[in-house]
Amino acid sequence: MAGCQIDKSVIRPIRFFNGKAQMLDQRLLPAEEVWLNYNTYEEVAEAIRSMVVRGAPAIGVAAAIGVWFGVRDIETESTEEFYAEMEKICDVLAATRPTAVNLFWALERMKRFAHANLDRTVLELKIGLEYEALAITQEDEKLCIQLGKQGEGLIPDGARVLTHCNAGALATAGYGTALGVIRAAVDAGKKISVLADETRPFNQGSRLTAWELKKDNIPVTLICDNMAGYLMSKGEIDCVIVGADRIAANGDVANKIGTYTVAVLAKAHKIPFYVAAPMSTVDLSLSDGSLIPIEERDAREITHLKDIQLAPEGIEVRNPAFDVTPNELVTAIITERGVAEGNYQQELAALANKR
Ligand SMILES: CSC[C@@H](O)[C@@H](O)C(=O)COP(=O)(O)O
């Protein structure tokens, strides 16, 4: 049977046009599809912090738009003063979520643009920065489509693919990274089915991955996080593909908490474990994964389900939002510029220099 048809145009979690932005409130999916309006950088910072928008590439896109909202409202004719104010705005946005490096990548790109154009007028800088934010948004979806094409050959026809968290259209400007590879495999005519880990505690798998794959008519089956090992032992999973929040120079991968567990299980069952991420997620400044900052989130994400109490009052809780999968557990890293396999140190550096 040929793969099912996809309407690629439908899911884009951030709308940015005519100087206005809207974001799909991912905290409410799948029950409600609510679009929120954004006008200031403080509002955008709060949207990132509270996970209205989430997923490393989408966080970067939102941050770039946030910077533009901030600089648009700066009142000065001096480009030096303008740049100093812009740095303060970037600092506020940078303080929202520490692990996803795309956030810092996007802020740096916006600052680099401004710094390189300080000989222009403040009005020209503002116009240029709006275009830069728009370019970051549009490029992100294009990169995901390229990344999907780079990776789809690794997914065999008929594969039952496990994924963890949501590395889909919702986590990017559109199309997705890990789910982009799956979309590209389906587009290539392969019959693919997906197993989605529910991904406690924020349930990106059950709420978001299941929602967007269903919307695209890609067969998806939801499982609890603790079921993957059993299904692997029964031969019901052919490969794993996940996204990443930050990849160190040696190929160690920070991704949603639970990814490391899945990678260990995949190794034990001799199942390929693929990571799909744009080059903006690769942080060559960090030699290995131990240097990646890991966000600890509010205990309430674990002790409560909305207002329902799931644990005793006052219980001690740990809530690291990400873990690090060591490079030896990663079969390949798929980027928009090519696939790295084996010596990640060399291959990621080579991809970084490739245009
Ligand atoms: C293409 S998104 C890749 C990662 O950002 C994704 O797997 C993930 O861990 C998202 O975490 P989140 O806490 O939902 O922002």
From TrEMBL:
Protein name, entry field: Methylthioribose-1-phosphate isomerase
Function of the protein: Catalyzes the interconversion of methylthioribose-1-phosphate (MTR-1-P) into methylthioribulose-1-phosphate (MTRu-1-P).
The keyword Thylakoid appears for this protein: no
The EC number(s) this enzyme carries: 5.3.1.23
Pathway annotation: Amino-acid biosynthesis; L-methionine biosynthesis via salvage pathway; L-methionine from S-methyl-5-thio-alpha-D-ribose 1-phosphate: step 1/6
Family: Belongs to the EIF-2B alpha/beta/delta subunits family. MtnA subfamily.
Transition state stabilizer (site feature) positions: 165
PANTHER family: METHYLTHIORIBOSE-1-PHOSPHATE ISOMERASE
Source species: Malonomonas rubra DSM 5091
InterPro entries recorded: IF-2B-related, IF-M1Pi, IF_2B-like_C, Initiation_fac_2B_a/b/d, M1Pi_N, NagB/RpiA_transferase-like
Signal sequence range: none
Keywords: Amino-acid biosynthesis, Isomerase, Methionine biosynthesis
